[in-house]
């Protein structure tokens, strides 16, 4: 608008010109800006000679005048002149602006999107501490602190003046160029990487140290022996390699070996001359292991004092040969003789003639190589032994009894029972008092068995009570009256083999007592092998008697079973009979609806999900919802959780200090946002983007070692299993 | 041979001074501490009750203005200072800890439309109905010296909003156009206009400091980049937005306070649908401000209440109101994340706690631990009905409650009608729109 008004306005001097120009029919428009303005309109920017069209021919004229212009450009211009095509119109203003805007928008969004990482990171962060860019607490340089300080009070001014007078170096550069360079030398990232490396090295070192310490603490001699052996083997291998690759070092090693040999020869070690060896020598006649130990000592001595061949210079070329000669040489002096045999070597006196007879070297080495196998074999042997014992007991008792103490057999048996018991415990899911009760009863059984056996006077009673196991509360009570700690004499034997037969498998089978079976059927007579050695706690006995007293007179267990059966029956779906008598047929007194009809209108409901206590004979778990509790319970699974198990597990772990250690509580109750009192929280600065993208957020360790990772997994697994067993224990 | 000996070292159980806490030997064996879930549940319930019991958010009221408060701003560098402008052209500077006004300036004739503090905290700018931008020194003039602005810029039109750049000496105003000014010049260095003739609010992005957003009277929100020649994009909503605020920690999110009782959080990369619609107010929302941590924001409404929303939740976690508080015009969240300031029609500035039940002042470490434990417990058991019932209960004034119910009814009716229409028309002809999609009319490139 303004442009238009201005274009109408013309200075009077121009009028004259224009009148002249009008007469000459060449009208020149001349525009002028009269007012300083920020906005410059496109309408009144005018060049000289507007309105005149510039033709290509005009341009060509000038080109022709100047000889400098090349023929090529001339040709191009001529071609242009020939072509009749017109240039396209530029886009209108709206469209160009739209394009500009969309380009700008794209650019901005791209730039803004670079924040995404940080934003997501911060959203996921367990804890955020504000203000974000807190200054490092590292001490500042004194000079830097002083530099920002200004003199204010007159006293300070005076002092400052004095200092200046003495030309103190107050204006000296704070840091020398070298110092500055050293500060700049390492960028933050480099420093971080370096730090991480160092950290890793340190961590590795500490792991190895810890491992070494752990291994050192292992007391098993066998373990150390095996380990040493392995080390030696490894060394030999390495040495062979070394001989081939690096003979000089190999030589060094050999020298070392030689030194060790010399030391060994000098010392009295492994000579079977110490106190220990002497004591062993006495025992060696009777004890196999002592003999073995002595032999080992000697073997060690022999090994250590064996001469190692130092490869001479001429042998140096043929390393392989040299390495081969070593064992040959070692064998040379006694090629035929048994190296273990001390007689042959003349190092042991004749006092122990049996020693050498027992084992050969091969046997020994084989034994040491696969020790695990041996252990396994040992277990196998033991098991077989036990089985054989049992069989013996069952079949040919008279013979076996004399040889083996009955107590041992029984003990074995008991161990087995307890094993199965443990298994059963692991299988069980819930805790119940009845379980413990039954266990008590059972243990009492085992205790009681032998007590009643001895003594001819009470033979009759023994037969009725001692050997007959009765399994209900009344009988238990009766039994309990007799329970008194009696010192048991030698184990007397079970009366008949037939009875024994019945008792054994039963005893093994009873992992947990099946209530239904036991209580609904008549009490069975069960023979138990007598246990003179196994004695349970006396406290338990007391407890049992207490329980018996408490439950005297009422048959709690059968009541309980009835109750449970009733509850189960209630829970079962009922058959719904919808037949209407008299509907569609005759009805009346004495008339029953037809079978067909009844069949048609009775519907069976789907069975309910299995009861939780179906495998627990001594527990009733009520699955009814109670109104008083329901008001406190969550009715739906809340949003982030996918299933009930997840939600329940989130609730189950307590976070309070009653259940957790201080540090754990602190970790678990960490607030999400932490602010400092009285600190201004500035908005996120732009340089944060660069800082954060390089370093991972969160408080995980900067490095995760591979070995460590697996170890961690293992430890976690073991931890888990531990916890599992613990929880099981708790349940039981 | 290893000999095991019982030993008692007094260091283990005797405290050094009588001021120390008694050492309590603990056994963490779970069997000794049974019923952990029920016990913690009870604790959570108690914590929730106590939390509500101690919820006393109102801290102080600052009175002294002689007309409704039109704008508040925080001092950039000092937590204890705020600046407020009133509808009679008066600007007051307040000392919060003392709860008193320490300086009063008659800055403009007519309304003080907006106040903003310079990033360094040495001066502040005001714009008013008298078409002027004035820069004032933060420090009061000496005794007997007249209160005069450092700088005054006479504009041609009324300025309705002002905001200062985070780090540079430029500021942006809005009126008929959005102008970028240099502090040293009396004319704008840039001027953006895009077919709109009046803006109500302009805000710099605090993170990406070259970005700007403004609310216009044609129901649109316009984005600008000062480095570009043209505005970036415009989103037109169903009703007008009054103000907007950028998230100070997340560069691409902003929230706008709308006339349709809702607030909308937008991601500037996807303007066609808001990220979250925040509903709860029962009247037009007039102002919004983010907490400095960027996790929550506070909104002021014409319905005489202020509400605090988590940034990603559709409903508010807190509502503050008092009998005497009238329409709340402006609201700010203090820079230490502890307080909320609201200025309202009835000439008072109110100071609220951002967390209603938080204990103020220094806390001992045990107090802190207890507080964080309680907070965690409430969070853990938040889904349990009893805890939720107590934690969520808020008292509302009768008319606000009535209005809320009325709104709910209206919404239900509308939904019902829409369902009916959909039922009785050709399948697909009445599209199913989510709540988020309903409020955006168009996005203009």
Automatic annotation (TrEMBL), chain A:
InterPro entries to which the protein is assigned, alphabetical = SSU_processome_Utp14
Asked if the Swiss-Prot or TrEMBL record annotates the protein with the keyword Acetylation, the reply is no
Query: Nucleus as a keyword?
Result: yes
Q: Where is the composition biased (Acidic residues)?
A: 312-323, 364-377, 409-432
Compositional bias (Basic residues) at which positions? 721-732
Protein keywords: Nucleus, Phosphoprotein
Give the Pfam families listed for this entry. Answer: Utp14
Q: Which portions of the chain have biased composition (kind: Basic and acidic residues)?
A: 709-720
Annotated region (Disordered) at: 301-436, 479-511, 587-615, 685-732
Cell compartments where the protein resides: Nucleus, Nucleolus
Its family remark reads: Belongs to the UTP14 family.
Which protein, by its recorded name, is this? Answer: U3 small nucleolar RNA-associated 14-like protein
Give the originating organism: Labeo rohita (Indian major carp)
From TrEMBL, chain B:
> What keywords are assigned to this protein?
Nucleus, Repeat, Ribonucleoprotein, Ribosome biogenesis, rRNA processing, Ubl conjugation pathway, WD repeat
The molecular function GO annotations come to: ubiquitin-like ligase-substrate adaptor activity
Query: Which InterPro entries is this protein grouped with?
Result: Sof1, WD40/YVTN_repeat-like_dom_sf, WD40_repeat_CS, WD40_repeat_dom_sf, WD40_rpt, WD_repeat_DCAF13/WDSOF1
Biological process terms from the Gene Ontology for this record are: female gamete generation; maturation of SSU-rRNA from tricistronic rRNA transcript (SSU-rRNA, 5.8S rRNA, LSU-rRNA); protein ubiquitination
Q: Name one Pfam family in it.
A: WD40
Any single Gene Ontology cellular-component annotation: small-subunit processome
For this protein, the record's PROSITE patterns field holds: WD_REPEATS_1, WD_REPEATS_2, WD_REPEATS_REGION
Q: In which pathway does it act?
A: Protein modification; protein ubiquitination
| Compartments, record wording | Nucleus, Nucleolus
Per the annotation, which location comes first and is thus the protein's main one?
A: nucleus
Give the family, as the similarity comment puts it.
Belongs to the WD repeat DCAF13/WDSOF1 family.
Q: What is this protein called?
A: DDB1- and CUL4-associated factor 13
List the source organism: Labeo rohita
């Amino acid at each position: 608008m303004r442009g238009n008004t201005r274009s109408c306005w013309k200075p009077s001097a121009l009028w004259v010109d224009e009148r002249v120009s009008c007469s000459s029919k060449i009208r020149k428009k001349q525009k002028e800006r009269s007012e300083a303005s920020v906005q410059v309109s496109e309408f009144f920017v005018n060049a000289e000679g507007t309105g005149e069209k510039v033709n290509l021919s005009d341009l060509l004229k000038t080109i022709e005048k100047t000889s400098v212009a090349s023929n090529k450009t001339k040709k191009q211009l001529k071609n242009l002149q020939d072509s009749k095509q017109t240039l396209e119109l530029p886009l209108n203003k709206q469209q160009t602006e739209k394009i500009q805007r969309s380009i700008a928008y794209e650019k901005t969004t791209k730039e803004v999107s670079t924040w995404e990482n940080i934003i997501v990171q911060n959203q996921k962060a367990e804890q955020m501490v504000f203000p974000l860019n807190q200054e490092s607490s590292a001490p500042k340089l004194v000079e830097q602190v002083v530099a920002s300080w200004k003199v204010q009070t007159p006293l300070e001014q005076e002092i400052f003046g004095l200092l200046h007078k003495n030309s103190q170096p107050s204006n000296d550069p704070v840091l020398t160029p070298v110092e500055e360079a050293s500060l700049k030398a390492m960028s933050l990232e480099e420093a971080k990487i370096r730090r991480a490396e160092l950290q890793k090295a340190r961590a590795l070192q500490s792991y190895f140290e810890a491992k070494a310490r752990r291994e050192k603490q292992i007391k098993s001699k066998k373990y150390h022996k095996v380990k040493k052996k392995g080390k030696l083997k490894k060394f030999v291998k390495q040495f062979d390699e070394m001989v081939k690759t690096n003979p000089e070092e190999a030589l060094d090693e050999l020298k070392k070996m030689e030194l060790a040999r010399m030391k060994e020869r000098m010392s009295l070690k492994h000579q079977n001359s110490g106190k220990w060896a002497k004591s062993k020598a006495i025992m060696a006649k009777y004890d196999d292991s002592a003999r073995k130990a002595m032999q080992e000592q000697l073997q060690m001595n022999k090994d250590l004092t064996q001469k190692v061949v130092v490869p001479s210079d001429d042998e140096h070329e043929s390393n392989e040969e040299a390495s081969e000669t070593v064992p040959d040489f070692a064998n040379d002096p006694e090629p035929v003789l048994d190296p273990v045999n001390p007689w042959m070597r003349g190092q042991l006196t004749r006092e122990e003639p049996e020693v050498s007879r027992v084992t050969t070297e091969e046997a020994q080495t084989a034994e040491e190589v696969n020790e695990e196998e041996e252990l396994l074999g040992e277990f196998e042997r033991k098991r077989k032994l036990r089985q054989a014992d049992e069989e013996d007991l069952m079949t040919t008792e008279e013979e076996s009894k004399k040889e083996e103490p009955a107590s041992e057999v029984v003990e074995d048996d008991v161990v087995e029972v307890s094993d199965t018991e443990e298994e059963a415990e692991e299988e069980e899911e819930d805790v119940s008092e009845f379980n413990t009760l039954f266990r008590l009863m059972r243990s009492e059984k085992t205790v009681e068995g032998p007590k009643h056996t001895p003594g001819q006077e009470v033979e009759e009673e023994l037969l009725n009570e001692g050997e007959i196991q009765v399994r209900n509360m009344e009988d238990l009570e009766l039994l309990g009256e007799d329970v008194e700690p009696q010192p048991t004499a030698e184990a007397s034997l079970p009366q008949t083999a037939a009875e024994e037969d019945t008792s054994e498998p039963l005893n093994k089978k009873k992992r947990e007592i099946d209530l239904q079976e036991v209580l609904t059927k008549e009490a069975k007579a069960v023979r138990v092998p007598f246990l003179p050695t196994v004695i349970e706690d006396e406290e338990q006995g007391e407890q049992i008697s207490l329980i018996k007293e408490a439950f005297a007179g009422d048959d709690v267990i059968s009541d309980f079973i009835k109750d449970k059966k009733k509850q189960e029956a209630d829970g079962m779906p009922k058959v719904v009979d919808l037949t209407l008598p008299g509907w569609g047929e005759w009805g009346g007194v004495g008339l029953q609806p037809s079978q067909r009809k009844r069949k048609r209108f009775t519907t069976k409901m789907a069975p309910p999900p299995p009861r939780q206590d179906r495998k627990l004979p001594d527990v009733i778990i009520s699955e009814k919802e109670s109104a008083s509790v329901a008001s406190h319970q969550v009715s739906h699974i809340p949003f982030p959780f996918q299933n009930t198990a997840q939600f329940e597990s989130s609730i189950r772990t307590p976070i309070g200090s009653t259940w957790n250690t201080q540090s754990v509580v602190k970790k678990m109750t960490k607030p999400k946002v932490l602010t400092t009192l009285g600190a201004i929280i500035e908005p996120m600065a732009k340089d944060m983007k660069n800082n954060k993208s390089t370093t991972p957020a969160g408080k995980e360790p900067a490095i995760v070692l591979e070995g460590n990772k697996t170890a961690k997994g293992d430890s976690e697994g073991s931890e888990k299993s531990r916890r599992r067993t613990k929880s099981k224990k708790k349940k039981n | 041979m290893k000999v095991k000996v019982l030993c008692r070292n007094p260091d283990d159980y005797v405290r050094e001074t009588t001021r120390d806490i008694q050492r309590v030997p603990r056994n963490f064996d779970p069997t000794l501490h049974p019923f952990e879930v029920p016990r913690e549940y009870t604790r959570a319930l108690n914590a929730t009750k106590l939390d509500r019991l101690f919820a006393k958010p109102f801290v102080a009221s600052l009175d002294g203005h002689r007309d409704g408060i039109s704008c508040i701003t925080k001092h950039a560098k000092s937590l204890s200072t705020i600046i407020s402008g009133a509808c009679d052209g008066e600007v007051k500077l307040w000392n919060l800890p003392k709860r008193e006004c320490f300086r009063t300036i008659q800055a403009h004739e007519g309304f003080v439309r907006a106040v903003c503090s310079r990033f360094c905290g040495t001066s502040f700018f005001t714009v008013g109905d008298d078409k002027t931008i004035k820069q004032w020194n933060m420090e009061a003039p000496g005794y007997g010296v007249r209160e005069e602005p450092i700088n005054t810029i006479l504009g041609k039109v009324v300025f309705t909003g002002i905001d200062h750049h985070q780090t540079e000496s430029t500021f942006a105003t809005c009126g008929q156009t959005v102008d970028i000014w240099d502090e040293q010049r009396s004319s704008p260095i840039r001027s953006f206009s895009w077919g709109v003739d009046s803006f109500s609010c302009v805000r710099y992005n605090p993170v990406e400091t070259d970005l700007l957003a403004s609310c216009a009277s044609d129901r649109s929100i316009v984005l600008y980049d000062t480095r570009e020649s043209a505005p970036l994009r415009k989103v037109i909503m169903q009703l007008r937005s009054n103000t907007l605020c950028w998230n100070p920690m997340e560069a691409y999110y902003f929230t706008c306070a709308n006339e349709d009782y809702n607030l909308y959080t937008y991601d500037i990369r996807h303007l066609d649908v808001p990220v979250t619609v925040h509903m709860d107010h029962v009247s037009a929302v007039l102002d919004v401000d983010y907490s400095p941590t960027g996790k929550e924001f506070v909104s002021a409404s014409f319905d005489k209440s202020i509400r605090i929303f988590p940034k990603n939740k559709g409903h508010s976690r807190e509502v503050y109101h008092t009998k005497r508080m009238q329409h709340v015009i402006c609201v700010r969240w203090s820079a230490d994340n502890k307080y909320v300031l609201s200025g309202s029609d009835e000439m008072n500035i109110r100071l609220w706690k951002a967390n209603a039940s938080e204990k103020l002042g220094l806390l001992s470490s045990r107090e802190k631990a207890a507080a964080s434990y309680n907070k965690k417990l409430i969070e853990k058991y938040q889904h349990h009905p009893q805890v939720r019932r107590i934690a969520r209960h808020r008292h509302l004034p009768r008319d606000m409650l009535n209005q809320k119910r009325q709104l709910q009814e209206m919404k239900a009716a509308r939904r019902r009608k829409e369902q009916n229409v959909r039922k009785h028309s050709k399948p697909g002809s009445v599209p199913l729109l989510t709540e988020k999609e309903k409020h955006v009319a168009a996005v203009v490139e």
